[in-house]
Amino acid sequence: MTETDTAADPQAVTAAPVRTDGPRTYPLADLAHLWAADAEEARASRLSGVPRGPVTGFPTIDRELGGYLTPGLHFVHGEPGTGKTNYALQVAAACGCPALFVSTEMSPLALLRRIVARVTNTFQGHLEGGELTPAASLELFARAVEACPMLALMDATRCYVAPWQIDSEPPGIREAAEVWRDHHGAASVLVVVDSLHTWAAGAPRPLASEYESINGAVADLLAVALALRSPVLAVAERSRFAMANAGQSSAKGSARIEYSADSVLSLNRVLDSAEDWQPDAADEYHMYAKLAKNRYGRSGHKVDLRFSGALASLREA
Fold first, then answer.
1. In a domain, 147, yes or no
2. What is the Cα–Cα distance from 152 to 259, expressed in whole angstroms?
3. How far is 65 from 61, CA to CA, in rounded Å?
4. Does the residue 201 lie in any domain?
5. What is the mean pLDDT of residues 199-217?
6. Alpha-carbon distance values, 207 to 104, 140, 203, 210, 211 (Å)
7. What average pLDDT does the structure give for the chain?
8. What pTM was computed for the model?
9. How much is the pLDDT for 246?
10. In total, how many domains does the chain have?
11. pLDDT tens digit sequence for 23-40
């Protein structure tokens, strides 16, 4: 059949293959089955007390987010020293499902010390200062492993790890997360990247500016989240001009961070004066977390926190 014949034959036109990889249009009535399935899942979660996906482990934050971290991008930012890595690591350990923590800044051993300190209530200084016997130290390690059986650390401090495997490259973040999720027979997996900016800087994007690199990294992480149908939590740096700003636009480099995110959480110091940030009698620093963006609940809500650097621990006040 010629091109002219095809155009003239209505049957030939209607028999053309329908693309399934592009956008789809849904009349509202056609969404009934999706609505019903979502309602059943929400009700089952409510009755069983089992979250619909990974959680942060902070009750108020989880409630404000609609009960769990939805599939998509989630960011946390704050000033240096406000516990961004501790928050992300604690969420990964407490999320209730397999979690892959991709570290571009801290070694697995350094992260492990923080996990052991928090789980066993042991000062980090005691863990690395030689005060414990090897046997006592190994006992604390075993307790941490038992408490966090679904947490895996990916070391990306010495080389760039791709968002997914391309050609003959080693497995990327997506493949590693899939293996870890399937190993536990779970439906979801939480991916944590610490940090977005360090990971973006290492990507092979020739002649790209910081702005372009961050935009590319955000797009890559969103693609990973969509492929896994799971949440990706990324630690972001705060821009210098916004150090004292808890807003959703405070992250450094690109507006794509807040525009692409399902949630943006900022960690902020509570100062005794214009500059001082001192621990209280319990050696805890007063902080608050602000949900600067939240697609599934209220935005702007503040949650009081207490941060112990010695124990690498954050808790709701």
1. yes
2. 29
3. 6
4. yes
5. 89
6. 21, 47, 11, 10, 11
7. 89
8. 0.89
9. 61
10. 1
11. 889 999 999 999 999 999
